Amino acid sequence: NKMAVPKWLNRDFFETALRQYEKDENLKVTDVEVKRILDTSEPTTSAIFSASVSYSLFNSTNENSTKLIVKTPASILEDNSDAVPAEPSIDPLFETEIEMYTKTLPAIGKYLLCSLDERVFFPNLIYHSKSPNYVLVFDDITDKGFAKVTNQLNFENSKLIFSKLAKLHACSMFLEQKTNEVSDYKQGLFRVRPDGVEHMLNSISKLIDEIATWPNHENYVEKFKNIHENFHRKIRRLYSVNTPTDGYNVLNHGDFHFRNMMFKTDKQGTAYDFMLVDYQVCIWGSPALDVIYALYMVASKDTLEKHREDLLTHYYDEFVAAHRTLGVKEKPPSRLDFNTELIRHGILEMIIAVCFMPYVHVDFSKVSIDDLMANGEASKDVRREIYGHPDYKKAIQELLPKYLEKGFLD
């Protein structure tokens, strides 16, 4: 049952969570309603629930109410019994996210507020636990006016995101200088999601089949066959930490696309506040990882085509300004250093264009991302249709010569 709510997600659970948060051992939960949130556009590695909770504090006659978001591994839905796991298995996704929310993000938040005069742009953590189940409980920011968007962003809204990303990256460099602990984030998307790598290989295979039907594209077929054959090696190199002679490193969000963002917008649709969620695959490495993601998965196609260099310049200027304000010891990287990172990690542009861009054209009310990533015949038929979509075909045919010229297909 995809809409099932675990039996342990009950009044006792929320009482424990809120007692810890409110620092009131006599707090009483008087009512709780929990519902599953199902997003078919996202892989179901996590199960997300919304909770409306009413409670009373010690020595108070007033009833309080709050709305919360609960995040736990999707695997808990496979066993909805009352049994407590004897030995919970380690989940690297939740280990990373708990570490981020309890240690790294609070420190970054202080730098944002105190040094950069910047609002914190991640949700407030109410409670977390690793046993008997991994679980995180957050403020429900939809109750504060934040909402997801259904389309990628125009230039002005993209500028806001690139500015926030630059400050996040600069704060992470400063925190690493202080603690030498930020560089411990070494898992990343492709180490903890091997099924994702297989999905990418399948996507490249589908593109090869599609390109083979286009006149005068034989050279691209051979290029992509070579990429497919050496994909694991290329991914490892892409997500390797830069040595001091290679380049510079920051803490990357690791899955920096618009579906992991929530916004407050005015009547004209201009974003004036922003929240970034889902910190499960954060990784210490080249800033190009997040920046390239942002170009393709945050900015709209029109924005990318018309304002690519404007966005990169805006990111770089904001990063250097934050770097200097924070007082990072190392000299800020030059624009050449930044451009070099983008070129050296340019294969990520191809990976995103081939493995993620096609799904912009999918109606996720009719099919889930999990179904698309499966290996059944029905899934293969849908993927074949996606890669033959006229809009995607036009977009990828415009991009391939650029990737070839820059050496991203070598």
From TrEMBL:
Keyword Transferase (UniProt): yes
Record-annotated CHK kinase-like domain positions: 136-325
InterPro entries per record: CHK_kinase-like, EcKL, Kinase-like_dom_sf
Alphabetical keyword list: Kinase, Transferase
Superkingdom assignment: Eukaryota
GO molecular function: kinase activity
Matches recorded under SUPFAM superfamilies: Protein kinase-like (PK-like)
Key word Transferase present: yes
Transmembrane segments: none
Protein name as catalogued: Putative ecdysteroid kinase
